[in-house]
Design a protein that fits this description.
The complex is a heterodimer. By secondary structure, chain A is of the alpha+beta class. Chain A has a domain at 12-61: Uridine Diphospho-n-acetylenolpyruvylglucosamine Reductase, domain 2, CATH 3.30.43. In chain A, 29% of the residues lie in helices and 20% in strands. Chain A has helices spanning 19-29, 42-47, 83-88, 90-95, 97-105, 109-114, 117-122, 128-131, 172-178, 196-199, 280-286, 293-303, 315-329; strands spanning 12-14, 33-36, 55-58, 68-70, 74-78, 182-187, 190-195, 218-225, 232-238, 249-258, 261-270, 277-278. In chain A, strands 4-5-8-6-7 form a five-stranded antiparallel sheet. Chain A has a four-stranded antiparallel sheet with strand order 9-10-11-12, sandwiched between helices. In chain A, helix 11 packs antiparallel against helix 12 (293-303) and helix 12 (293-303) packs antiparallel against helix 13. Chain B is mainly alpha-helical. Chain B has one domain: Fumarate Reductase Cytochrome B subunit (Up-down Bundle), CATH 1.20.950. Helices cover 57% and strands 6% of the residues of chain B. Chain B contains nine helices and four strands, in the order E-E-H-H-E-H-H-H-H-H-H-E-H. Chain B has helices at 22-45, 59-62, 73-94, 105-128, 139-152, 168-191, 209-238, 243-251, 256-262; strands at residues 4-8, 14-19, 67-69, 253-255. In chain B, the strands form two sheets. Chain B has a two-stranded antiparallel ribbon. In chain B, a hairpin with a 5-residue loop joins strand 1 (4-8) and strand 2 (14-19). Classes of the chains: A alpha+beta, B mainly alpha. The A-B interface holds A 1, 129, 132-135, 139-145, 147-149, 161-163, 201, 204-206, 308 and B 5, 7-10, 12, 15, 17-18, 96, 101-106, 194-196, 202, 204-205, 209, 212-213, 216.
Chain lengths: 333, 278
């Protein structure tokens, strides 16, 4: 079992001033390098001595990664912009208030000052079996300790599991998927743009990673198109305590509604699966119909098709159904 | 290089997880090294050796038909189904390890079930409908093996006779495939209890942690062995001097000349009077 210690394992600390410089270091160290953003996930891993990178690349000095700016097609938010930057940015508040809302519900105000948007979407799962350093699937082993009859799995997945049942804990990730955002990733060979929906990957594809980021990659920015700007948003986070807590489940929806009829909608939940889950069938059921309790209930029922609760998290089924229902009905529900 | 991968369980005990994936690269490069060696050997050394003798004379040869069925239609279907399943298993099992990520688990277990069914079919088919002993290493083969080794070493080996339906190298390959196959299929079926599938309910507690580790290790060991076996098999299948065998696995038969050049009619009787068995 991992024990928090006073001293972290030794590593080379790099504090580059530019993205290129950072990429050079990452290229040099490959899988032995660790990208440090706000540090809120990182220091736990290092102090627990579960992760022992040879090099830590601190992006805190790369100012170009903190910018928030309007582009022709949307808003670009640097991955190193803090959650507080996102919350306070006028254009975010005006056009994508749901993102500011989700960021303001992440952790605590202190953490929002330090934590970054890139770190929030790229953070690792909170499964304690995994974080304690045991040899589970996600750590390269051959078992999921959370998916056994006596496991403590109240916070774990009811959807999308494949051997590993850990969930993605991000509050901003489902919002970005709902807003059809794109993740800009750079490495030493170039840049690639990944739709947010594909950026988060489940254990069926790669059991040891939660995102498409590979060694050597840096998430440089997140682009949110104007497609759903200033439409009807809904974000709700269910958690055990009102502040400084990860979601048991959260839901984000962005809907274009005209005369009470849903023209387009994207519904995404997190905390219920290893990745933010988009409910395509529920969206199809709602699209083109008048918003109302019956339609919303139908969407909720569709969303829970195929769930597989574990011993202690069956409550998430009802929770998810109601969150999706409310996300369709909207804030006035 | 490590042979096994170990982990720590919640009780602080060291547990076996699987074979080290270093072995994947080891067996891959061992397969490549064997192929390179054989290419050189076949080009430089093999022509200097005397060919096997015997078998063309005698009454048996006179009765050999123009076309000889070497593999029945069902035997060929089995072979290609097994080959396809094996390739799918190797791709789905190892591509994620070398960095090509995709949702492989479902494809992998389905291919494993197909392989298992095809092997079960093969066991029944070969036992009751084919010449069962033709593929097994028998005392005669051991004598031949000793002769061949002596000949390779430049010693007096006496007259080496042509083989029956299957030469010694085929029999050795079949034995290796059988052992590796039993290891991956036996452990793979048990490992079905660890994943979501429609055939068996999940039960991670079916075995102790140590026994699960052994299952994964055996599965991995058989699988990495198959990397080498598959590489070498494909190599021999596309070698020009062996292509007549590959063709027979596609179309079922060899012609009279090929038969007489490689087989001893006394050890593989295909005379018109004999049965079509085998």
């Amino acid at each position: 079992m991992a024990v928090i210690r006073d001293k972290m394992p030794a590593f080379q600390l790099f504090q580059p001033a530019s993205t290129e410089e950072a990429l050079g270091v990452l290229d040099q160290y490959g899988a032995d390098a660790w990208v440090l953003a706000g540090g809120l996930d990182t220091w736990d891993w290092l102090k627990d001595r579960v992760k022992k990178p040879a090099a830590v690349v601190d992006l805190g000095g790369v100012s170009e990664l903190s910018e928030i700016r309007s582009l022709g097609g949307g808003l670009e938010i640097g991955a190193m912009a803090t959650l507080r930057d996102v919350i306070r940015h006028p254009e975010v508040a005006e056009q994508f208030s749901m993102l500011a809302d989700a960021a303001s519900q992440a952790a605590s105000p202190q953490i929002q000052n330090q934590g970054t948007l890139g770190g929030n979407v790229g953070q690792d799962t909170r499964c304690w079996y995994y974080r304690d350093g045991w040899s589970c699937y996600r750590a390269g082993g051959n078992i999921c300790y959370a998916d056994t009859p006596t496991a403590m799995n109240r916070e774990h997945a009811i959807l999308g599991a494949s051997r590993c049942v850990a969930v993605n804990p991000s509050d901003t990730a489902p919002v970005l998927v709902a807003l059809d955002a794109e993740m800009v990733v750079r490495n030493s060979t170039g840049e690639r743009v990944i739709p947010a929906q594909d950026f988060f990957i489940g254990p069926a594809v790669d059991i040891m990673r939660m995102t498409a980021l590979q060694p050597g990659d840096i998430l440089t920015s997140i682009r949110i198109p104007w497609t759903f700007a200033n439409t009807r948003f809904y974000f709700e986070k269910a958690r055990d305590r009102a502040v400084w807590d990860f979601p048991l489940a959260n839901v984000a929806s962005a809907a274009k509604i005209s005369n009470g009829v849903v023209e387009d909608i994207r519904i995404v939940a997190n905390g219920v699966a290893p990745y933010p889950v988009r409910f395509l069938a529920a969206e199809d059921a709602v699209r083109g119909r008048q918003v109302g309790p019956a339609v919303a209930m139908e969407a909720g029922d569709i969303a829970i098709n195929g769930v597989r609760p574990l011993r202690h998290n069956a409550y998430k089924v009802t929770l998810l159904r109601n969150l999706v229902k409310r996300s369709v009905e909207g804030a006035e529900a | 290089m490590e042979l096994f991968q170990w982990g720590t369980n919640p009780w602080g005990q060291e547990t076996l997880i699987r074979v080290s994936w270093d072995l994947l690269y080891l067996f891959f490069w061992a397969g490549i090294a064997f192929i390179v060696f054989h290419v050189v050997y076949a080009a430089v050394w093999l022509p200097k050796l005397a060919r096997a003798n015997g078998g063309q004379e005698g009454a048996a040869a006179a009765d050999v038909p123009e076309t000889i069925e070497r593999h029945t239609l069902w035997a060929r279907i089995f072979h290609w189904v097994m080959a396809a399943a094996m390739l799918v298993l190797l791709v789905t099992g190892f591509f994620p390890i070398i960095g090509i990520q995709f949702a492989w688990v479902t494809i992998h277990w389905i291919a494993g079930v197909v392989l298992t069914i095809s092997i079960l079919y093969h066991i029944v088919h070969a036992t009751f409908y084919l010449d069962f002993w033709s593929i097994w290493i028998l005392p005669d083969d051991m004598d031949e093996a000793v002769q061949r080794v002596k000949r390779q070493m430049g010693q007096e080996a006496g007259e080496i006779h042509k083989h029956g339906k299957y030469p010694l190298d085929h029999k050795l390959y079949h034995t290796a495939v059988m052992l590796a196959g039993l290891a991956v299929i036996g452990t793979g079926l048990v490992m079905m209890f660890r994943i979501e599938n429609v055939l068996v309910p999940r039960n991670a507690y079916l075995l102790s942690e140590a026994t699960w580790g052994l299952m994964y290790a055996l599965h991995g060991l058989g699988a990495v062995l198959f990397v080498m076996l598959t590489l070498t098999h494909i190599y021999f299948a596309i070698r020009p001097d062996k292509f007549w065998l590959t063709k027979s696995m596609l179309f079922g038969s060899v012609d009279r000349d090929q038969y007489l050049a490689h087989h001893d009619p006394k050890r593989w009787d295909v005379s018109k009077e004999s049965t079509s068995k085998g």
